[in-house]
Structures are given as C-alpha cells and as structure tokens.
C-alpha cells in the first residue's frame, strides 16, 4: 500500500513536470488592452489619471484592472515592460522586411515612440518607489541586445559606418526625441532620419 508521504511526493513530482498554465486568450486580450490604454492615457494625463479613463479606453471594467494590477505602481511598471517588449519585438520583424540600415532606421523611430510613452511615466519612475527598481535593468536586457544586432548587421552589410555604439545611438535618439504632444509636425521623425543619414555617410 502506498504511504501518504509517497503519494504526496508523486503528486509533487507530477505537478513539477506539468507545463506552465497558459493564459486564456480573453485574459491576454484584456491585459494588453489595459496596458495599451494606460500608456496612451499616461502620456496625455500623467500617471495619476483616473482609472475610469483607462478602463473606458480599454473597454473593460474597473474590477478587471484591479484584478490584474492591485496597486497603481503595478500598472505603471507593467506599462513600462509592455512598451519595452513591444519595442524589442519589433526588431526581428523589421529585420526580416527591410534592408539592414533601413531596419535600424525604422527601429529607432519605434524607439522614439517608446521614449514619448516613457515621458508619461517619468514622474513615477523617478519617485524613488522600490516597485520600479528593476525597470532599468529590464530596459537594458531587452533593448540593448536587439539594437546591438541591428547595428552589427547594418555595419556588416556596408549600410552604416562602424564607429557607433549602441549606447551612443540610444543617447543621440533620446536627445532628438520630443514627446508625442510636442511632435505634431513630425520633427522627431525628421531628426532621426537625419541621424541615420549621418550613419550612412562614410559606410564601408
């Protein structure tokens, strides 16, 4: 007869071998809708914007928001990660569709959109709240590898000059970027295009 301890150990082992539970499609859609809506609202109204603005834009109830993000800091951190992920995930698709230098140029435009969103979060991110302590490293871990790959591929293809580092390029893009409200005439897009033209000059 199998002892209770043996049965429990067998159950624990079986549980460990089970694949992680998949997030239901409707839950994923609601979460993505909330994060996208929150990013847009925070950009315009700041991180203290009323919850009802976010839920109305996302098309969900307040209960759904609080179930996923019990604290405002949970939502803000999740918005940051969501926007970083979207920026990182855009790189492979661009690389598959465009010439290497063009893929880099379009990714920098996408990065500029992320920076505009980040400005809406800046008050919270610089508040000293420990809930945001891991976000700088998350930024580096997700974005630096994809940018390094885009630059390296463009250099190898002879599309841009080789004397540029990922850090320098991110800093230059950041310095050229205006927030979405301030960029109604496409100033940021034009400045980043000029930056990339400078990278093309003197390419091997």
Summarize this entry quickly.
With 204 residues, the chain is an all-alpha fold.
Rg over CA atoms: 21 Å
- Uncertain segments are 4-12
Number of helices: 9
Number of strands: 0
Distance between the termini: 76 Å
What does the average pLDDT come to?
Answer: 86
Percent strand: under 5%
Q: What class, by secondary structure content? A: mainly alpha
Could you state the order of secondary-structure elements as H and E?
A: HHHHHHHHH
Shape: elongated
Please give a structural write-up:
The protein is mostly helical and 204 residues long. The protein contains nine helices and no strands. Helix 2 crosses helix 5 and helix 5 packs antiparallel against helix 6. The chain is elongated, with a radius of gyration of 21 Å. About 4% of the residues have low confidence.
Give the helix/strand layout.
Layout: H1 4-17, H2 25-45, H3 51-58, H4 62-68, H5 72-97, H6 100-125, H7 135-156, H8 166-176, H9 187-200
Helix pairs in contact: 2-3, 2-5, 2-6, 5-6, 5-7, 6-7, 6-9
Keyphrases for this structure?
204 residues; mainly alpha; 0% strand; 9 helices
């Amino acid at each position: 007869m199998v002892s209770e301890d043996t049965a429990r150990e067998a159950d624990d082992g079986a549980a460990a071998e089970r694949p992680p539970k998949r997030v239901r499609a409707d839950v994923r859609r609601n979460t993505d809708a909330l994060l996208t809506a929150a990013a847009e609202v925070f950009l315009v109204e700041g991180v203290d914007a009323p919850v009802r603005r976010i839920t109305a834009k996302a098309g969900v109830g307040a209960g759904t928001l609080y179930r996923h993000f019990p604290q405002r800091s949970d939502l803000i951190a999740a918005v940051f990660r969501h926007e970083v992920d979207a920026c990182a995930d855009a790189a492979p698709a661009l690389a598959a569709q465009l010439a290497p230098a063009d893929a880099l140029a379009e990714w920098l435009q996408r990065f500029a959109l992320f920076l505009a969103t980040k400005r809406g979060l800046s008050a919270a991110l610089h508040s000293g709240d420990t809930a945001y302590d891991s976000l700088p490293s998350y930024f580096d871990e997700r974005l630096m590898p994809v940018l390094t790959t885009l630059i390296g591929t463009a250099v190898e293809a002879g599309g841009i000059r080789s004397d540029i580092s990922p850090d320098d390029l991110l800093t230059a893009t950041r310095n050229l970027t205006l927030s979405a409200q301030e960029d109604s005439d496409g100033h940021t897009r034009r400045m980043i295009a000029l930056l990339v033209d400078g990278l093309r000059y003197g390419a091997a």
